[in-house]
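quick one before i forget lol
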Amino acid sequence: MMPIVERKKQSERMKLNNPMKRKEVRLKSSLSHIGNPGYWKGKHHSDKTKRKLSRLNRKEKHPRWLGGISDEGYPVEFNQQLKDKIKKRDNYTCQYCGNRKKLVVHHVDYDKKNCNLKNLITLCNSCHSKTNGNRDWWPEIWTKSPIIKIATISHEEEKKT
């Protein structure tokens, strides 16, 4: 995993090289869209199509259905005090992109009941929404993260005291 500092430098370079940051390119792009309302603008599904789509995407039939896990509640231990502790440990920084705004605490193994410190990581809202996509890939990324190893050491030290 690329360190946060290197990713930040890389994203800064991308911003500088992004043609859409230049005023003349933005103007040309906006002028090219005049009179072009877009493919779907002003169009709507018929009521019959809406009912059909609703039936096709209901619960188990939806391709991203995960068995109703969003209905499960969080345990009592997963409270604001624990979330603040994790954010403080992670220096109030998203452990994927380095952002410091709109931070949330994420369960690495996707098990809401597992509130072990080494299973929790700080992410910004944007990165957290990305983690819902490929649930097999993300835990592998987080377990390779140095912050998880630090959290494991911190947790073991807490047990000793």
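fyi DSSP finds seven helices and two strands in the chain.
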